[in-house]
Design goal:
Layout: H1 4-30, E1 37-39, E2 46-48, E3 61-65, H2 68-79, E4 89-94, E5 99-103, E6 117-122, H3 127-135, E7 140-141, H4 142-151, E8 156-159, E9 165-166, H5 168-177, E10 179-190, E11 195-206, E12 214-219, E13 228-237, E14 244-249, H6 252-270, E15 276-280
Parallel strand pairs: 3-6, 4-15
Antiparallel strand pairs: 1-2, 4-5, 5-6, 7-14, 8-9, 8-12, 10-11, 12-13, 13-14
């Protein structure tokens, strides 16, 4: 006579056999070979053992790169006419993050893929563009601004207050030596009925006419894209103990749009001859 625990184990074992048989029958409806998984008695969970087989059941993975040519080459290897592993693939381009993701086994509406074989491209900012962004948008001291102009002088031209091009050495020296003086002005008026006087103090920069008004900075913003010339407006701050400057790129949003558009076009052109659909945006399977 079996005790209660033994009977439960026998029931569980028999149910497990039935469930595994149903699982294999279901798998046969979708593919010729049985899937490497089975139901186990413990909580009747599905356990995969693909990692114990000699080979994986299908190819999948993520390829990531910062190089446009490598991204295109990888996609070509799997979607091109010579090695048509996948009938079609889709690429999603994000201009804000300057990235592109190719989903190689996306399939279609009739035969959808698993969407787990992908290639991702994220093009990096160049050192020059990082340097430009580091000095714009916040206060710069005289030393910081003069160092920036001197360090990147091969990429810089400077415009003076009247729009003329300045000698870089003169501009650097002007930034380093400009001083501020406090000016006291007294206005007074006397008429038949009253006397009045006002005192106003202001700060004025000495030799400010020698300072740069605009800095033109030419660089490749992202690896693999074209050169861009950024026009930077220079403003001086005198309301503190030490003189400061703020730099602002003129038309920054327009520059961002043009850079993103060039990136999108570059992806389109390079993948134009492949059976690949290119979309602007993102996709989450």
């Amino acid at each position: 006579m079996f005790d209660r625990d033994t009977l439960l184990e026998l029931q569980k074992s028999e149910l497990n056999k039935q469930l595994n048989s149903q699982l294999l029958d279901t798998a046969a409806l979708f593919q010729e070979e049985a899937i490497p998984a089975m139901l186990v008695p413990e909580n009747f969970s599905v356990v995969g053992f693909e990692n114990r087989l000699e080979h994986r059941t299908r190819f999948r993975g993520l390829f990531s790169t910062e190089d446009i040519k490598s991204f295109v080459a990888y996609v070509t290897d799997y979607v091109g006419d010579e090695t048509p592993l996948y009938a079609n693939s889709q690429v999603f381009v994000n201009g804000d993050s300057m990235s592109a993701t190719a989903i190689l086994n996306v399939g279609d509406l009739i035969v959808p893929g698993h969407c787990d074989h992908t290639a991702k491209l994220s093009i990096p900012k160049t050192a020059a563009f990082k340097a430009l962004q580091s000095v714009c948008g916040h206060r710069q001291g005289q030393q910081e601004l003069s160092d920036f102009i001197e360090d990147w002088k091969d990429r810089i031209t400077v415009e003076g207050m009247s729009g003329e091009q300045m000698n870089l050495s003169v501009a650097i020296n002007a930034v380093r030596t400009v001083t501020v003086e406090r000016v006291r002005e007294i206005e007074s008026s006397i008429d038949q009925f009253e006397n009045s006087a006002s005192v106003m103090e202001r700060e004025a920069a000495k030799n400010k006419k020698d300072l740069p008004a605009y800095i033109n900075f030419t660089c490749v913003p992202y690896a693999g894209l074209s050169e861009v010339t950024f026009k930077i407006r220079v403003s001086m701050l005198t309301g503190d103990v030490r003189i400061g400057f703020t730099l602002r790129v003129v038309g920054q949003e327009e520059h961002d749009e043009q850079i993103a558009e060039e990136f999108k076009q570059k992806i389109n052109i390079n993948l134009n001859e492949l059976p690949v659909e290119v979309f602007i945006g993102g996709f989450k399977p």
